[in-house]
Amino acid sequence: MSETRDHKTAVLIVGGGIVGLSAALLLARQGIQPVLVERHPSTALLPQARAFNPRSMEIYQALGLEREIRARASILADLPEMIGAETLTGEERFRFDVLARVRPLASVSPTDWAMIDQDELEHVVRAHAERSGADVRFGTELVSFDAGAGGVTTLLRDVGSGAEYRIDADYLIAADGHRAGLRHQLGIGADGPGVLFPVMNFIFDADLSTALRGRRFLLAYLDRPTTGTALVPLRQFGRWALGVPYHSERGESPDDFTDQRCAELAREAVGIPDLELTLVPPMPGRDQKAASTRIGGWVARRYRAGRVFFVGDAAHVVPPTGSYGANTGIADAHNLAWKLAAVIRGRQSTRCWTPTTTSAARSRGQHSTPRCGS
Ligand SMILES: Cc1cc2nc3c(=O)[nH]c(=O)nc-3n(C[C@H](O)[C@H](O)[C@H](O)COP(=O)(O)OP(=O)(O)OC[C@H]3O[C@@H](n4cnc5c(N)ncnc54)[C@H](O)[C@@H]3O)c2cc1C
Questions:
Q1: From the CB of 19, is ligand 1 less than 6 Å away?
Q2: Distances (CA, A) of 155 to 19, 147, 163, 179
Q3: Which of 24, 177, 250, 299 is spaced 20 to 30 Å from 142 by Cα?
Q4: What is the distance in A from the centroid of ligand 1 to the CA of 351?
Q5: Is 154 in the same domain as 254?
């Protein structure tokens, strides 16, 4: 075991998705410099969430990120429409603006929805977290932890070198996603309908202009190859993500999704049997093309076990409809960060100064850190 990076921190965050990164930024802006570990080498590579609601944007606006986020809006920000059809080639059964009925009144929020791909948003939030003093370590995984009354001892591993080291934390934030490894290790279950159906996701490059007939959309729900199939255009022209539900109760498993089967499923969804396409690995440098995820709903029985807190998908999972997944997680991070910061600073929250960053300073990326008065 390497002892080179052993040390102590007030808060260790496990998971560098949008929720963990937001928690890191929010804590750093309050003068707490957390350590964040994420096993993947980089932020998300797929858009996942694309619609960030006014509450999330209020939080990012207060952090001075709104202009940057809106500048990196999705290529489809002007067209937040979903369509439904049997195949992409087939006749559209419905088309609607997903934001038409949920735009806030100017009297209730100073901001609005932002249509930005989640991977783009993660880049923005990570950069600001690091600039604000968070110690963000991608390619680092939590191997084990031991949470006691006085703190949490963790064993971390540098994924590239295999070197292991310890960090002791006063508090641990588990932002480790829907598989919720830390929550399960602590024996905390969840309530709700559970997994509704599993989905295989993969990316492909293809010229779909014949099937599109000049149309654009944010997401297409298709009935082929199976009801609930979702086709999503990606930023790179001619690149698509396809999510296909599969039936584990009928014995189907992720291993069945060979490259050849994925190509056949994409052709069936588009409705062109001889469509030329190329599968693209979602992780550069890896051969694996398809990855499974679970659509479902559950809420953890507790959001806390002593000094360990669960946020984001680790605490609650909802189906993608309504765009509540990432958005509720960002709200968790905001709610937890100011409370933890107040406790760490010695319960002086009522005497803390609020940030007084001017808009000119914000546009230069400078922010004041809240300080506690004497
Ligand atoms: C295809 C798709 C479409 C979606 N569409 C929407 C949408 O439209 N709107 C919406 O709001 N939500 C949507 N979601 C859901 C949204 O993406 C999630 O709610 C959100 O990513 C949850 O963020 P998180 O940070 O809690 O977890 P995650 O993004 O899952 O991040 C958790 C991270 O923890 C890391 N990790 C886990 N264990 C360890 C460990 N031991 N050590 C180090 N790192 C670890 C993982 O590698 C992972 O990167 C969608 C999801 C998918 C898959």
A1: yes
A2: 22, 12, 10, 20
A3: 299
A4: 35
A5: no
